[in-house]
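FORM 7B: Structural annotation worksheet

SECTION A. Query
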Amino acid sequence: MLPETPKSEIPCRGLGA
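SECTION B. Predicted structure
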């Protein structure tokens, strides 16, 4: 969960989605 990092850039990188 970063300020400038869309979910498209980070595929479940700790989000657990």
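SECTION C. Observations
The radius of gyration is 7 Å. The mean pLDDT is 61.

SECTION D. Sign-off
Analyst initials: ____
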